[in-house]
Amino acid sequence: MSAETKARNQELIQEALAMYPEKAAKKRAKHLNVYEEGKPDCGVKSNIKSLPGVMTIRGCAYAGSKGVVWGPIKDMVHISHGPVGCGQYSWGTRRNYYGGITGVNSFVGMQVTSDFQEKDIVFGGDKKLDKLIDEITTLFPLANGISIQSECPIGLIGDDIEAVSKKKTKEIGKTIVPVRCEGFRGVSQSLGHHIANDQVRDWVLDKAESTHEAGPYDVAIIGDYNIGGDAWSSRILLEEMGLRVVAQWSGDGTLKEMEKTPKVKLNLLHCYRSMNYISRHMEEKYGIPWVEYNFFGPTKIAASLREIASHFDDKIKEGAEKVIAKYQPMVDAVIAKYKPRLDKKTVMLYVGGLRPRHVVGAYEDLGMEVVGAGYEFAHGDDYQRTTHYVKDGTLIYDDVTGFELEHFVDKIRPDLVGSGVKEKYIFQKMGVPFRQMHSWDYSGPYHGYDGFAIFARDMDMAINSPVWSMNKAPWKK
Amino acid sequence: MPQNAASVLDHNQLFKEPEYKALVEAKKVFEDAVPDAKVKEVEDWTKSWEYREINFKREALTINPAKACQPLGAVLAAAGFEGTLPYVHGSQGCVAYFRSHFNRHFKEPSSCVSDSMTEDAAVFGGLNNMVDGLSNAYALYKPKMIAVSTTCMAEVIGDDLDSFIKTAKQKEVIPESFPVPFAHTPSFVGSHVTGYDNMMKGILTHFWEGKERKAGNSVNIIGGFDGYCVGNNRELKRMLGLMGVDYTILSDPSDVFDTPADGEFRMYDGGTKLEDAAAALNAKATFAMQGISAAKTLEYVAGTGQEVVELNCPIGVAATDAFLMELSRITGKAIPEELEKERGRLVDAMADSQAYLHGKKFALFGDPDMTMGLTSFLLEMGAEPVHIVCTNAPKAWEEKMRKLLDASPFGKEAKLYPGKDLWHMRSLLATEPVEFLIGSTYGKLLERDCGVPLIRIGFPIFDRHHHHRFPIWGYQGSLNVLVKVLDKIFDELDAKSRDDIDFDVVR
């Protein structure tokens, strides 16, 4: 980007900061910057408490654990333990697709809660938890386990959910996992991911005794939540190249798959932010190497397939080449169709902890340019990784506030904003095309070659919709 | 390979292709999946009378409840006042959830801030969060009023909003005169409708407390937690305008949840003017459109000397008649001919269509007053409500509903299920089937499991667009409700007769 753009971006940051009270401006200044090529990171602080009252877009640890890591495990019943709201607002809204019959052998699309009342707060909820585990056991005999997703009050009233879990595990003979993901812990969803990972380690992997027979090409997909079917359109490629996918963590995943994972040859990590912890643990304890991959857009997909194959023998390496060759004509046709309509279009992204960098390649495959990027809950290592993707001069905003993002978008006027549902309608009213990049805006999958075609179609339909030409009444010049 | 550039397949078609069906099937080996026959056996059992009995014995477990928590309602109540920023004291994740919940229902922005309390606030209290939060929110978002409610975290640790707000003002982070009404809204008490009630009472208390009432001839209208607030409030204003009544709608989010796409984002738009909210003390009477859910507010209002009128979602002829007659009685204004004609048109439409509803068996679920309004209308159409579930029913609900049902020969078979959830409803529908179900989007799970067609009326409606723009109250609103119900009935008739002799062109 030109020196002019860089200066403009710096100016935008200063304009936004000028609106804050002094103390807040000082703090926010550390989270906003312009990327300088050659630097090892993006020049912003991250994973720090959000300021009160600024309209952060972040969620909480419960959202990171129940909503992201645990919720998609389909053969377990996940209890939203505490008052009714948390489970209600996260009921079926994240689109982690799953197979099975809901309420019979699959339990993802359900809102199961202890629905705390005042007496539970006053007298504690352990007895209620004990009883409701029995009730789950009776009503859902095909459930293979239960997780307890703590909401804020649990950690404040001194409940001992670990003791209840131990007792009930013995009684019912099924895995019960207590998760201390109270919403006030940490600064964002991120600590919820970490706590959830740790509980997989302590309450699933350490206790599992799988009789599963390992094979030479066994891999696990880690950190794919099967949004709109992402994990399936990824799995198909891995299987086509000759690998055996033993487990999906956690989209359309099961407790049984998790228990088999310590025997795989390689862990394939898509969402680094939410599942690097368990990948590192499995490397340490079981000696399983892990590799980060990126299945957004043909350039990154091909590079990832080759990188994954490099951990295996020639059969798999040839398999990867075959897969790449097989899909190339379809990819070429997709690019031929959509690139002319999307070339040189600019994008600003604000998503969770992975996608603001991971989707850059897919946009570039279509000729588009990412001019602004930021994360809700990234850490320093994410911003380091981001430098491999973004261009010099890109505007970087960590834990952006509603006010800042509106200001930046209003002034930069990109051709597309990719962010969440809370942002969608704001920017559409401003006349800026928008795609939800958490839920794929009810579309998807976006992963894999099949997903790339959908991604390209969706970006085109957002940007080139005739609706954007009608914002201004013709009589108003 | 199923995917192709010419006609891109997304999840709607892609996963129905043989490659993906085989993939999902082959995956079952790693899932240690139980055989399909066993799954089918358990599925059938979950729909049996035996299962229903076990299901109804639940004491601790809630599954698929039709209610949300208090602060959600507080945020909606606050959003309906001019230039008002809803502010929730407590954990930030709650606010992310409230906002996205409203985004998904209204397909509109939803502005609200949190003061992001974390572990240290859990130990030391959230005073610093409140002081900084008010300071930042005031500077950045330039509201005319900030309405504060609480998450359960703040309630469990016992933060005192009144003293915190006073402290913030003493520290001069916001002006002394700046309005900051508040309400404690613990999530472990009541539901979203309780939170609305508490916030409304908090706002009225802020404007009215210590003021002398000079009784006038205007009326106040409180909509309550209403997913149709955009359409309903506009319809109320039209009707009140036709009557020539001097009125104040207390919390009117019809503009802020329906701003134009003209290149500008309006964080605030329309809403009850703050001076009108203050002057509303002098009204002759206050109408609660959802009276069962407005208990605390009405008690407070009655204490000021105003008459209070409790309605229960005026859907249908009788309920709308009662609304207008009460308005007329209190204000002395006659019901104009135009509204009388609208009434006649609704009756006309009902007469045209009654044969398709008469004797039809319905199940419904939703908020206390919503289920009451819908029941009243169904009875007028000769339809028979059978199962009525209200997860967040207060005590008054059952009694009022029973009275309504008992007054009609079509209500005799109806059973009321206060406090029950949609998993209970699943058992009811599986063992005692009905022809149609009315409720929120989450009713689609019941539609899938039990084969009962869902008519979407309620909150939230996530999977259909723009329903909230059309009223469901008053004569015009009732017409919308009638059409929603009829369209589903006719679609069902067509679907079931597609290959049959009675696939009729005229119905």
Largest interface: A-B, 126 and 109 residues
Question: Strand order within the widest sheet of chain B?
Answer: 11-10-9-12-13
What is the makeup of the main sheet of chain A?
Answer: 6 strands, mixed
List the strand order in the largest sheet of chain A.
1-12-11-10-13-14
Summarize the biggest pleated sheet of chain B. 5 strands, parallel
Question: Layout of helices and strands, plus pairs?
Answer:
The complex is a heterodimer of chains A (477) and B (507).
Chain A: H1 3-17, H2 22-29, E1 32-34, H3 61-70, E2 76-81, H4 85-89, E3 112-113, H5 118-123, H6 126-139, E4 145-150, H7 152-157, H8 161-172, E5 175-179, H9 189-205, E6 218-224, H10 230-240, E7 244-250, H11 255-260, E8 266-269, H12 272-286, E9 290-292, H13 298-309, H14 314-342, E10 346-351, H15 355-358, H16 360-365, E11 369-375, H17 380-386, E12 395-397, H18 402-412, E13 416-419, H19 421-429, E14 434-436, H20 448-463
Helix pairs in contact in A: 1-18, 3-9, 6-8, 9-12, 10-20, 13-14, 14-20
Chain B: H1 11-14, H2 18-31, H3 36-46, H4 49-56, E1 62-63, H5 70-79, E2 84-89, H6 92-106, E3 113-114, H7 119-124, H8 127-141, E4 145-150, H9 152-157, H10 161-170, H11 192-208, E5 219-222, H12 229-243, E6 247-250, H13 274-279, E7 285-288, H14 295-303, E8 307-310, H15 317-331, H16 337-357, E9 361-365, H17 368-380, E10 384-390, H18 395-406, E11 415-418, H19 422-431, E12 436-439, H20 443-450, E13 454-456, H21 474-497
Parallel strand pairs in B: 2-3, 2-4, 5-6, 5-7, 7-8, 9-10, 9-12, 10-11, 12-13
Helix pairs in contact in B: 4-19, 5-11, 8-10, 11-14, 16-21, 17-18, 19-20
